[in-house]
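Priority: medium. Attachment 1 of 2:
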């Protein structure tokens, strides 16, 4: 039971919680979603209501995660957090260690980054619903900016640690298939083999030049 709870905890913080934050923003425009969330204020929460909120939060959280992949991942990769090329040939022998790093680092990265995206969406929905200026000065705007900076900093640190520690576990693939270095070495090897064949038949660069 404890093992099951530990695995579910990572999925909860990575998808369900950020999804619920975004769902709260959606509830400002949807009376149906608002009834799911606020039903407990009028009485005991129902099983159906809890199920709707949980499934909707999971679905929205997965969508938020896709937006995070496009925005936040690209931001970190463009500003110095380089995704490594791991040697997945070693994964079979080190699978448990890899899964532990996913739960202890990558799930937290997903929480911080997904929450940053979810917070931005909900903040925008709140001001759009009340026809307010998103950039108007005030404690709410300042608090939102500070929270976003903290979440982005936490996501960057978690992602960097995840990359580094998985690389230590699996090793680094120096020349992944299809990379420019691989193609360059392949072309160089082809050139050496061609030169060797020319030397075997007595055709060197000088002869080629004379013939040209």
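Attachment 2 of 2:
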């Amino acid at each position: 039971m404890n093992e099951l709870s530990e695995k579910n905890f990572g999925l909860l913080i990575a998808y369900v919680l950020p999804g619920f934050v975004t769902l709260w923003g959606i509830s400002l425009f949807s009376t149906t979603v608002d009834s799911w969330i606020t039903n407990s204020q009028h009485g005991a929460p129902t099983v159906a209501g809890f199920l709707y909120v949980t499934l909707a939060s999971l679905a929205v959280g997965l969508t938020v995660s896709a937006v995070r992949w496009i925005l936040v991942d690209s931001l970190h990769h463009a500003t110095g957090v380089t995704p490594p090329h791991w040697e997945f040939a070693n994964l079979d022998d080190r699978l448990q260690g890899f899964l532990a790093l996913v739960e202890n680092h990558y799930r937290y990265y997903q929480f911080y980054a997904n929450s940053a995206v979810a917070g931005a969406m909900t903040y925008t929905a709140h001001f759009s619903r009340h026809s307010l200026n998103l950039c108007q000065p005030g404690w709410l705007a300042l608090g939102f900016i500070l929270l976003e900076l903290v979440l982005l900093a936490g996501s960057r640190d978690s992602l960097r640690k995840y990359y580094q520690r998985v690389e230590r576990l699996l090793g680094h693939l120096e020349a992944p298939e299809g990379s420019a270095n691989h193609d360059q070495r392949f072309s160089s090897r082809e050139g050496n083999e061609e030169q060797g064949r020319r030397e075997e038949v007595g055709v060197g660069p000088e002869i080629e030049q004379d013939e040209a």
